[in-house]
Amino acid sequence: MACHGGVRTVERVSADGTALELLVHGVGGTTPEEMLGDPRTVRITGDDTAAVFRRTEDADAEARPEDYQGKPVPEAYVWCNLTSGNGTRALWLLLLPFMVVNLAHWMRPTARGRKRTVRLYGLLVRLAGLSLTVLLVAAACEVALDLAAWQCAGTPACAERHSWLGFLSPDMSDGGWWSRPGRRLALAALVPLALTGLLWYLSHRTWSAYESQLPMSRTAEPDQETGRTALGRPGFWYGRRLVARLRAAHTSAGLLTVAAAVGSAAARFDRRPGGPAVLDTLGRLLSVALVAAAVGVVWVVCRRGRSEKRLDQELDEHVVRRLPLASLLLLVLALVYAGWDRPGWESTGRLPGDTTFGAVAFLQGLLVIVLAVVAHLLHRTHPDPRAAMRGLGGPAVAMLACALGGLMSGGVSQRVADWLDGTGTSIDGPPVLLTWQASVIPPLLVVLLLLCGGLGWRTWLLRRTELGAVETEYDEEPKDPGRTRRIASTRALATLTDRGPLFVAVGSATTLLLGAGALVGALTTDETPGEAARHAHAFVQGAADTAQALGSWLIGLGFILFVTWGRRAYKDPSARRTIGILWDVGTFWPRAAHPFAPPCYAERAVPDLTWRMATWTRATGGRLVLSGHSQGSVLAAAAAWQLAPSVRKRVALLTYGSPLERLYGRWFPAHFGPTALSSLHDEVDCWRNLHRRTDPIGGPVRLSGDCGPAVDREALADPLAYGRTPEHPLPAPILGHSDYQADPAFAEERERLLSRLRSAVPAQRLMAEPPDPDPGQDSSGRSSA
Questions:
Q1: Total domains in the fold of the chain
Q2: d(CA 180, CA 337)
């Protein structure tokens, strides 16, 4: 291998010579030195964000095939900086509800021949995502416009405690220019406007930095509509067009929410009897324009979904540019309209936020219910007994996303209200619905604690069963009760992952029921739960008061922990790494339902792996083992689906600690279900999977021999030795999810895969990078296989 003038030329060697092992790490990341077991490594290709590394001595391995007879050349693909980089990643905590609702899109059940129902499922999730944007921007409006500018600045007792609001107070500023209610609202609108701008900036910046990589150009395979999986489609990992459309729509929705919050207060005052007819007319015209713009936003969200069958690089310029500009213009008009001088206008009571939050809560609950019906219909067309919650995982996760949005909005409103209102009597506080929502948090926690207690009891019973199993497996070893208990406990705790669907189902169902009760309570009374309860029995009154106070305190505590975690993540690399692990799991999927979700690292990682495998096999004709641990095995499977069939047949898969079936197959059955995994087993040359009973994440892929030899090896022993042995003179650790390569079975399976790979001996040639668009064809257009 040599480089001349920036163009790399690679001499093609016999497939019987060089073999490559491409290692892909899992969640949390690692270093190339740890992956390759050598302190001296060199970057072969890539940049500071993601790159392929080799040991220094292996950098020119293709030029010395005789030195690698019978052993592979190890390479490490390091992608951890895609999810755990600099301190700005801490801002991604703001995007948590958006990430969760985006996951709901990909949890669609497997379906065949129900294209319209599938489109309806995606449409409902996109609408739920749009409601979250409106909810969070409305919460910012509630804090800045209602609590600060309207209530506190308009109340002398509250304004005196906060001198920074003095220039907005009519009593403290002696009727200054900014003391008019409409002008106060116009100035406070800068806060939700800044939030909307921040969300737009994060979405646009992360797209440019992480997701703008073009996949390898190729034509779609003829059998892509057989229902196996969509991950192999040419445009699956490139959603530029949809993300741009959704970003424009959600940005416009945020701007229109701010405009409606500012303009509606002024319009309500202008509609009073005897008010100026001109301002009344302007207010009505502005309301009509806002409604028309909102309809346009909904139409843009509903109009188009993902384009996966081809690589779609077009942009809808008329939507991407004109819709946000029109919404910004309406916001400016609303600010000017609200700032007009209105004699006699005073800020009393609350702004009409109850209607907004109530409508959003009702819409979210309705969308979740309809989504559950659609998911059930899809699941019935192709039942999958392993699917989480019988195909209802998507609606349940969408409900949790809405609950997270409500918790964040309610937490901010409650804390700011408590901070502004020191005595608790000077201002009215946040909308009644947010207070009712705080009251339902304690019973929700009680239900979850009872569920955790039940799962703990079941785990303890399973531990007792595992004690006997461990003693049976190691009956020839000297008994060590402490060692046996640790092994049995680790095995029992590892099974808690399989109870995740039950936890999500109970949590989402309870949240939906309690949220409906809070909405009914807010609509039937204008009082807080504690005040309304005074008309009932004393016991009910005390329970309601306690629930409201405790719920408000819990919301505040959650908000403080959220801010503290984000602040710590900004300064502490180890905490930022922990957040990165969360994103490793939650941001594997492209942004299909919400453009403000954290960026999809797989839209960079999958093309990286695809290009590397395709170009290397084309240049050398060699054998390749794609070795993936944990989340790396998911990336490996996704990259293998993206390869041309001729290249895919030269690749063997070795997965270990893999969540492919245990997590992804159950939660994302349409893309990693039994049909999809069976097709992958059949299309790659060979596949072996390693797992342990002590592993809480990885597990078997459960593929039988219908499409070839069984994939799963028998569960590996963990620990490798029960007691002290000549090979393990010190106690062997319980490895769980880590260090699969330390097991002798790893080397055995890798050698088995290398020996089974079919070999071809193409002629030698020189190739200049970049390669042909289709790595499965030579310069004459004929298949190189």
A1: 1
A2: 13
Please report, for residues 151, 155, 422, 589, 699, the alpha-carbon distance to residue 166 in angstroms, rounded to integers and kept in the order given: 13, 11, 17, 48, 62
Asked if 83 and 587 count as a contact pair (C-beta separation under 8 A), the reply is yes
What CA–CA distance (Å, rounded) separates 313 from 370? Answer: 33
Helices (H), 525-587: 529-532, 538-571, 573-586
Q: Which residue has the higher pLDDT, 622 or 454?
A: 454
Q: pLDDT tens-digit profile of 182-233?
A: 888 999 999 999 999 999 988 887 777 666 677 777 665 554 444 478 898 8
67 lies in some domain: yes
pLDDT, tens digit, 9 for 90 and up, residues 362-379: 999 999 999 999 999 999
- Helix, coil or strand: residue 525: coil
Helix (H, G, I), strand (E, B) or coil at 225: coil
Alpha carbon distance 518, 508 (integer Å) = 15
Residue 348: inside a domain, yes or no?
no
pTM for this prediction: 0.87
Distances (CA, A) of 524 to 351, 403, 436, 518, 562: 19, 22, 11, 10, 32
| Mean predicted confidence (pLDDT) in 525-554 | 54
Residue at 345 is within a domain: no
On whether residue 734 sits in a domain, the answer given is: yes
pLDDT at 699 over 60: yes
Single-letter amino acid code for the residue at 706: D
Which domain CATH number covers 649? 3.40.50
Provide the domain limits for residue 725: 2-83+601-768
